[in-house]
Design brief:
71% helix, 2 strands, single chain, two-stranded antiparallel ribbon
Length: 516
């Protein structure tokens, strides 16, 4: 990759694109790995800390909710206070929380540590992705950079299951948490050396007081592109509280339907309150005198709206698939954690292969075309998973669908990010990145909550292999339906997004990538 120094407001002459890409790659690998590394260790975690069956999913939900609920605030903080500063802070918190999780002695302590991990990830993930989009704004360099990003994203998510199995069986489940500590340290070192100290002049960037792109702009541009501070520039903490609380209650209401039922007063009240909080969040974002957490006008771009809905549905389907295939391999087929992790190796290789293929196809086809093909292939793979049997095996029930679903999933990872950020203004890159990450995490949490409830109802009171398989197969079939809905959503994305203004490079680069 050529070491081109791009002339954009967020970079300085001291920034080194190669090290920026390396730091972002390590960060994304670590975040993706943490989303899946815990799955295989869940049975051992339950035994070690005394989790109940219904409460065990909160090891996943605590992380996903904190991550997804605060990503918008993390993206806004990156735009306002500097991406390097927010990235470094998030890495430090993520590493410390991972260490605390490894030393947890009770369920509540582990859930709290997982929530703290999610807060750290909500800071570092959008900052890293915003750095990538601003360092590589266009051309073949952008396609290659997002190809690397999507490959490590895929490898982290898929290899996390393998690493979780091996660590759980041979070192103990606590090392599933400790694993993040050295990776956070490496990412910190790369970020500290390779990322320039960006100025905070990107905040606001001329967003209007109404937050919809149609009102009067707040303030102008001062010396070196920095804007004068005005009261409206204060961050929208209320919006973050409303969004996170609403999402938490939404997931809580769905998860508790296994105890209270969909028509019970408790469930209805919880879901109604969540809807009110989320509606209040939208009102606040349109009327706040502070800098809005999410400019509603972003959704006027069909590419942004379509990519985020697509990402939400993919997150819902894939999180459910990881969870239930792992449980099927252990609780029905009777494999240990290490063997279960090895069973996911073909999936890991397939996702990486799909990501690499997406780079090659990205030079020739529009991103929408790749998203449609990738999500359709993933839906077929998950539908195949829905045919699992209680007396099945790796070769008959896991290998084939793993290869099909993984290649399709890998095809989706890079293009959806490119679509969601291609026509976003530079000062909103962090917000757009946070929004995209948030949609995936929210989708993962909601999807896992809803489909876990459906699987529990289908399984019934019996925990025998045949009944468990019926529940798992039902959830996996529903996951395939969710991915089919993602395919339909991809068709609504414009075939070609409006071209983003190209930054002037220090060295000429005439290579261009096809429009999305």
């Amino acid at each position: 990759m050529k070491d081109v120094k791009w002339a954009h407001p967020q970079a300085s002459s001291g920034e080194r694109p190669g090290l920026v890409l390396a730091a972002v790659a390590v960060v994304q690998f670590m975040v993706s790995l943490d989303l899946s590394v815990v799955n295989v260790g869940l049975p051992e975690i339950a035994k070690g800390l005394g989790f109940g069956v219904a409460d065990l999913t909160w090891v996943i939900h605590a992380y996903a909710l904190a991550f997804g609920g605060l990503l918008l605030l993390g993206g806004k903080a990156a735009d306002r206070y500097g991406r390097k500063r927010v990235l470094v802070t998030g890495l430090a918190l993520f590493g410390a929380a991972s260490s605390a999780g490894g030393f947890a002695q009770a369920p509540g302590q582990l859930i709290a540590a997982r929530a703290a991990q999610g807060i750290g990830a909500a800071a570092l993930a959008p900052a890293a992705l915003a750095l990538l989009t601003s360092t590589f704004p266009t051309g073949r360099a952008r396609v290659r950079a997002f190809g690397v990003w999507s490959a490590v994203n895929a490898a982290g998510g898929a290899l996390g299951v393998l690493a979780g199995g091996l660590l759980t069986q041979y070192a103990g489940w606590r090392w599933v948490m400790f694993l993040n500590v050295p990776m956070a340290a490496v990412a910190l070192a790369l970020a500290w050396r390779g990322i320039a100290n960006d100025r905070t002049g990107v905040r606001g960037g001329g967003t209007d007081s109404r937050g919809d792109g149609t009102g009067v702009r707040r303030g102008g541009t001062g010396v070196r592109g920095a804007r004068a501070k005005v009261p409206g520039d204060r961050p929208d903490v209320l919006g973050a509280v409303l969004a996170t609380s609403g999402l938490f209650l939404l997931v809580l209401g769905v998860v508790r339907t296994d105890r209270n039922g969909w028509g019970s007063p408790v469930t209805l009240a919880t879901l109604a309150l969540s809807v009110l909080l989320l509606a209040a969040f939208l009102v606040v974002e349109r009327t706040t005198a502070r800098e809005p957490l999410l400019r509603i006008g972003l959704f006027a771009h069909r590419s942004v709206a379509g990519a985020n809905v697509f990402n939400l549905l993919v997150g819902a389907g894939m999180a459910t698939a990881f969870y239930f295939v792992s449980l099927y391999a252990q609780r029905v087929l009777g494999n240990g954690a290490a063997v279960t992790g090895l069973m996911f190796l073909p999936f890991a290789l397939g996702v990486v292969a799909g990501s690499v293929l997406a780079v090659t196809l990205g030079y020739r086809f529009a991103a929408r075309t790749i998203l449609v093909c990738g999500s359709l292939l993933t839906a077929l793979g998950l539908g195949w998973f829905g045919l699992i049997s209680a007396d099945g095996g790796f070769l008959t029930d896991i290998l084939g669908p793993s290869l099909v679903a993984s290649v399709g999933f890998g095809l989706c990872l890079g293009p959806v990010v490119s679509v969601a950020t291609a026509d976003v203004a530079p000062h909103e890159a962090g917000t757009a990145s946070g929004l995209l990450n948030s949609s995936r995490q929210i989708g993962a949490s909601l999807g896992l909550a809803a489909l876990s409830t459906a699987a529990t109802h289908r399984t019934g009171a019996s925990l025998g292999p045949h009944h468990l398989t019926q529940g798992y197969a039902f959830a996996l079939t529903l996951s395939a339906a969710v991915l089919a809905a993602a395919t339909l959503t991809a068709l609504t994305i414009p075939r070609r997004t409006p071209p983003k203004p190209r930054a002037v490079p220090a060295l000429p680069e005439r290579e261009t990538a096809p429009a999305d």
